[in-house]
Amino acid sequence: MKEVKVGNVRFSEQHLGIIAGPCVIEDRDHSLIMASELKIISEKLDLPIIFKSSFDKANRTSIKSFRGPGIDKGMRILNDVKDETGLSILTDIHTADQADIVAEIVDVIQIPAFLSRQTDLLIAASKTGKTVNIKKGQFLAPWDVEHIINKVEEAGSTNILLTDRGTQFGYNNLVADMRAIPLMKKFGYPVIFDATHSAQLPGGSGGHSSGMREMIPTLARSAVAAGCCGVFMEVHDNVASAKSDAATQWPLTELESLLISIKNIQNVVREL
């Protein structure tokens, strides 16, 4: 399987990469505080982290929900985070014209799950030369990602990450099928598990999604045991006041202990 390296973060059978940060950019100060705290944890545990945050949550349930600062201000904030912490940066795009703008700052361009089959979006992200993280749509089977991979490869990119974030399970529910990890790895690229979105109950609170935060450690540990090459987690220093996905962001104060357990499991898996 191909190893994908982003800065000092490696995604492979032997190296577990971490992608972490707030769901959405709330403001510059908060982003810098979060990134600085994540860097401290990363260095303490010798577990490299990519900082993630969205400049626009274009798929919020309600039109009244907070979406973020937008692309111009958002990119300035992410550039400041990169300059001040040295962390690699990931953010998502929603339209093809955003790809080149985002590529000037970030190291990884993410394709949202709801948009994972959008050919123009995939091609635009691929042509930037940046690593492309594709979130498998909740409506897709694990083997369906082959067609997505083909689109990205045809556009000239082989720096591909695949992320599983759960699968639609009836109304307002997701199931995390750990079989998806080895099934997706068969296509030759690292598979990441999104432990926080997989705990969501989409639209479960009417005007916004709810979730089962208490399930996040179980899901994350299970995915590492199943052989994932990275873990994606949305993290916040005050989950109760988070402006997006408050029900499933993981508390910053509890991140270190969870990452320790994940790293211990990875060490065992690596020896199998």
How would a crystallographer describe the biggest sheet? Answer: 8 strands, parallel, barrel
Provide the succession of SSEs. Answer: EEEHEHEHEHEHEEEHEEEHEEH
End-to-end distance, in Å? 17 Å
What's the CATH superfamily, by name?
Answer: Aldolase class I
Describe the structure concisely.
The protein is an alpha/beta fold.
Structural summary, described in words:
The chain is α/β, with parallel strands linked by helices. The chain has one domain (4-271): Aldolase class I (TIM Barrel). Helices cover 33% and strands 20% of the residues. The chain is built from eight helices and 15 strands. The chain has helices spanning 28-45, 71-85, 98-103, 119-127, 145-154, 180-185, 216-225, 255-271, and strands at 4-6, 9-11, 17-21, 49-52, 88-92, 108-111, 131-135, 160-164, 167-168, 174-175, 191-194, 200-201, 210-211, 230-236, 250-251. Strands 3-4-5-6-7-8-11-14 form an eight-stranded parallel β-barrel, surrounded by five helices. It has a two-stranded antiparallel ribbon with strand order 1-2. The chain has a two-stranded antiparallel ribbon with strand order 9-10. Helix 1 runs parallel beside helix 2 (71-85) and helix 4 crosses helix 5 (145-154). The two termini are 17 Å apart. The model has no long low-confidence stretch (mean pLDDT 95).
List the helices and strands and how they pair.
Blueprint: E1 4-6, E2 9-11, E3 17-21, H1 28-45, E4 49-52, H2 71-85, E5 88-92, H3 98-103, E6 108-111, H4 119-127, E7 131-135, H5 145-154, E8 160-164, E9 167-168, E10 174-175, H6 180-185, E11 191-194, E12 200-201, E13 210-211, H7 216-225, E14 230-236, E15 250-251, H8 255-271
Parallel strand pairs: 3-4, 3-14, 4-5, 5-6, 6-7, 7-8, 8-11, 11-14, 14-15
Antiparallel strand pairs: 1-2, 9-10, 12-13
Helix pairs in contact: 1-2, 4-5, 7-8
